Here is the input.
Amino acid sequence: MILKKIALTLILITSTAFSAPFFNIKRLNKAPLELVLKQLSKELSEKLPKEINKFTKLTEIKSNKNSLTFIKTIDLQKAIQINNALKNEKAKVYLKKFLQNNDKNEVCKETIFKYVLSRGASINYTLTDEKSNFLFKYNIDNRLCLQ
Here is the structure.
C-alpha cells in the first residue's frame, strides 16, 4: 500500500507531537486524499489509547472524507483546573484557543500533516470527559497554518 511507510508514534494533548519517518510525497500525490487520511487514521490508531499526561488520553482517531479527527478524553476528576475553566465561558474559550494553538504549532510543522492540509484536509480535535460527554472541539486547516 502507498502509505505503509508512514508510521506516526507519539501524540500528546497540549502539544500534539508527531514523528514520521521518510515517505514518498510523489506516490502520495497519486492517491485520493480520502484514502491517504483513511490509511493515516488506521496507522495512528494502532497505538491507542495513548496516555498523553496524567489526566488526558488520546482515545480515537478517525477519518471522514477530507478530515482527520482526534478524540481526546480528559479525566475531569484529576484535571481540576480544566474542570473549573469549563464552568466559565471566558476561561473555556481561552482554554480552547490555547489547546488549538499548541496543536497547530505541532501539526503545522509535521511534514505529513502539512501535506494533507495543503491538499485541503482539515484536522479536527474533539475533547470529551471520562464519560464521553462532549466538552468542545476545534480544527486546524491550511489557512491556520499559514498565519
Confidence is low (pLDDT under 50) at residues 1-22. Residues 11 and 17 are 5 Å apart (CA to CA).
